[in-house]
Write a structure and sequence with these properties.
Layout lengths: L1 E3 L15 E4 L4 E5 L9 E7 L3 E5 L18 E5 L2 H4 L7 E6 L4 E6 L1 E8 L5 H12 L8
């Protein structure tokens, strides 16, 4: 088992704001603030085919107690863990995404950026606006 940076080239996570999250039992949407180096704003990711989804109130200092050696403010993909072995037929992936005061663990099939904008603002508002914009497209039903 080892932890890598995922192959996806998503904007680097900012070090201030925690994300806004919506999980409907099938898919999860996560809106986060990218770092200033990534030009700020908001990014919304859509995880599809979610098998397991957890939010844990672990801050950066608590990461040393994580069962996997993950990096702070980063997308960490666990390769060869027990979680993915059970779901190998689905080609499931396990990511541990670390933010300032919480950690998201998601076991899923695919992930993509569904929105990226330069406008700064609360992540919850950006996520709701994104989800409302997708309503009626067959992409999501609220």
């Amino acid at each position: 088992m080892h932890v890598i940076n995922p192959k996806e080239d998503f904007p680097e996570i900012g070090t201030v704001q925690n994300p806004a999250v919506f999980y409907d039992g099938r898919d999860a949407s996560v809106c986060y603030e990218p770092s200033v180096r990534s030009e700020g704003g908001n990014v919304v990711l859509k995880f599809r085919g979610v098998i397991d989804f957890r939010i844990t109130p672990v801050n950066i200092d608590g990461l040393r107690d994580c069962r996997y050696p993950v990096n702070p403010w980063a997308f960490n993909e666990v390769i060869g863990g027990a979680e993915t072995a059970r779901w190998h037929i689905l080609k499931a992936r396990l990511w541990i995404v670390t933010f300032n005061d919480l950690t998201i663990e998601v076991l899923f099939r695919t992930v993509e950026i569904i929105r990226r904008d330069a406008e700064e603002g609360p992540q919850d508002r950006a996520l709701v606006n994104t989800l409302n914009g997708l309503q009626g497209t067959g992409i999501i039903a609220l």
